[in-house]
Design brief:
Two copies of one chain form a homodimer. Chain A is of the alpha/beta class.
Chain lengths: 450, 450
């Protein structure tokens, strides 16, 4: 993505706090912040970690340009701020550590996904950007995983393609959603920029306007095939889906048609009738693509009803996570050093918003059959037997600890991780949430903090 | 916003159709597309047009770079496309007309907000970007208007500030939401980039992490005041809101404090008790700011309960339009010229997705008391008596018809437009939707199209 001007893509209070820490000689105090989600969204049994690559890109490129600094100076609230703070911003860069779950990891509410260990001022400045990126990508990857799961409910492989860019919250959200949907298991996207930037396979043929621009569907189908013989998916619902399906048998190139798309009407009935019509003509090779306000629930219904649909195009519901468009992610201070280098544990005690102090690690335990048995939330220094820690080092002293995985690798990794979910977590209609348990040591520490 | 690489921020099918029109010698046929919303969201009685400035910026700067074109060439579907199409893309620019409702205009489902009159290929290519920008900005401006309305439910002026960037769908969505929220009536935003780019007033002080980073709330309050004496809003809910409010009376600078913020707990009870404590100390000047998962319904409850809150900070619900995060906006072909220069009217007849053909205009009629009486949807060439047309020329032959209004002007205009809404439309808890009626001529034409 574009990194220009990113330093100002933040909440003002990150900058007022930065100036405040700086002037109070607290900028360099070592602090630990954790980013986590408090509540499981309805019907979700798991979340899919997504967005880390964009976060790392942001952190590695984060700097304040002269223009940025001049603007901050001009904000009325900054009138009394000491000029040395603006000098500091000129050379700002992130020098701390970042620990995180790898993208495509499965996690649950209450578990830190990202952990920043850095000078207080640096850790604070990251907050807003990290939250907004992780929010949208994790939401969409999670939703996409559910949609793909529904499409394959009967054990048969069916594909889902992201068609949502037009309904995303602006062009950038569409691109981030395309990436997240791919990680969540989609076959590809309609978003061309995402295809170029991330290498995601691209799909798309024509809209209804194409069909309408011609005098007849026959003419529209032929004109399209002439230009795109290798990509011959015909849109058949502009006027009368069944008539259009019959029209196909009159096309000279009918044996070369790859698919038909139905975007409206009763998809269960229409897909069955269209399949019959196609099969009667021996056009068994023609796949049926369905689209139009689909989501995991509607797709599950179609699969259960044995609608002969091969590919689902999913848009709005997936890219906006329509039924739950915002995770309650927070970025909380959990540890800070005092002046003497001792660690102080920190927690909020606000009503309904209590947090658990201390730098943590998530320890995942598997059954003998390689299913997730339980996650424990413990102190970072713990290492319970037979568990695997989920937070891994990503940045060390401001530099990449190791190369980030390729997108294909992340997608494959998530596909494998899904297999570790207990059966009950795979029901998309009911939440079965494996709430992490605190280790005795973390519980004791948390209780002692009031 | 950043315009680089915008040409690829689109659905693949816009480009396959473009190539198809080009190779079928249809690229230059004059076409009319209309962008409109089909369904009123629940409880909404009106929508606030927002996003036109970003759309115009996109169109005026739209071009395909060599890198963009090389990428399109490399997409497998484009294998058989004639090289002359890629030559055409090199010199692509929008040469058509754009008509639109001004930003900040009030509109209803069924009314075209944007109308593109252009060579078919040019009009088609704009679709995805236009939809995604208008979707998010219109959603958020509409939601913000409702939130502001609730805050002033009893006729008393109260301010709303956008705090939502962290929960927006990525950094760009946060910036667009800040703009839309400002147009919808917010006092300002926490988003620094939006402050710089759009000149929106900025607000923000500290997070809970600031309070926790100090040994006591007293120390945290004092350290903040030392740096920001002009911006002294103290966050008082980190541990115990009432204790923190009492702490304020012990601050030497208590007479200079501008406000306190409460971000959790029972805001109705806490705001009343905090107000009492402050008043007892003679601190009548200290404003109470409330935040934390607020929306129009919760704010209305607080106002009805006479909670002494002066300013509301609103985030997630507003910037994601949480209860309805996607409008069903579509971009439909309504007219096209045939080979002989005659106009053909176009409409979709898909089940549940029927559209009304012909280039249209919206004619608004007002009562004698300057309230909206009725909108009529008519042919573009009509001019019913005593009505005002809502679609205005924005681009003519690819160039600005006139300068776009400044943001402050748009905000002011919306504030005035709200006053034209009938009383029944101002109830945020029930939809009273003034459905536009078709003029006899448009109804006749629409019926004749089947």
């Amino acid at each position: 993505m574009n990194c220009q001007g990113n330093a100002l893509k933040t909440d003002l209070y990150e900058l007022t706090m930065a100036a405040g820490y700086f002037q109070n000689n607290m900028a360099d105090i070592k602090a630990v912040f954790e980013l986590s989600c408090h509540t499981m969204p309805p019907n979700r049994s798991y979340l899919v970690s997504c967005g880390l690559e964009q976060i790392v890109e942001y952190i590695l490129n984060l700097k304040f340009s002269e223009e940025d600094i001049n603007f901050i100076k001009s904000i009325p609230a900054f009138k009394a701020v000491d000029p040395s703070f603006f000098e500091y911003l000129k050379s700002f860069k992130f020098t701390g550590d970042l620990w995180a779950m790898p993208e495509g990891e499965i996690f649950f509410a209450g578990e830190p996904v990202i952990q920043v260990v850095a000078p207080l001022i640096e850790a604070q400045i990251l907050e807003t950007y990290l939250l907004s990126v992780l929010n949208v990508e994790t939401l969409v990857a999670t939703k996409a995983a559910r949609v793909v799961q529904a499409a394959c409910l009967d054990g048969k492989e069916r594909s889902v393609i992201d068609f949502g860019s037009r309904r995303a919250h602006g062009p950038q959200a569409g691109i981030l959603a395309a990436r997240a949907a791919y990680i969540g298991g989609c076959l590809g996207t309609s978003n061309v920029y995402a295809g170029k930037h991330f290498g995601i396979p691209l799909y798309g043929t024509v809209a209804h306007s194409w069909i309408e621009a011609f005098d007849s569907e026959h003419a529209a189908f032929k004109a399209y095939f002439d230009v795109f013989p290798q990509n011959s998916i015909l849109l058949i619902d502009t006027y009368d889906t069944l008539k259009a399906a019959q029209e196909i048998s009159r096309l000279k190139f009918k044996k070369d048609i790859k698919g038909v798309r139905i975007d409206s009407g009763n998809l269960k009935i229409l897909s069955k009738k269209v399949r019959q019509l196609l099969n009667k003509e021996g056009l068994h090779q023609v796949k049926i693509i369905a689209s139009g306000n689909l989501n995991e629930y509607k797709i599950a219904e179609l699969v259960k009803a044995k609608a002969p649909i091969d590919i689902f195009g999913v848009g709005t519901d997936m890219v906006t996570s329509r039924d739950y468009p915002a995770l309650d992610l927070t970025y909380k201070l959990v540890e800070i050093e005092d002046g003497k280098g001792n660690i102080q544990f920190k927690a909020k005690r606000s009503q309904g918003k209590k947090t658990i102090p201390a730098r943590k690690q998530i320890f995942r335990k598997f059954t003998k059959k390689c299913k997730i048995e339980r996650d424990s939330l413990g102190l970072f220094s713990e290492a319970p037997d037979d568990t695997i820690p989920l937070l891994k080092p990503v940045l060390e002293a401001g530099k990449l600890a190791q190369g980030l995985p390729a997108l294909e690798e992340i997608r494959k990794s998530f596909k494998e991780k899904v297999l570790t979910l207990p059966e009950a977590c795979l029901n998309t209609e009911r939440s079965h949430y494996l709430k992490p348990v605190l280790t005795p040591r973390l519980r004791q520490l948390s209780n002692s903090q009031g």
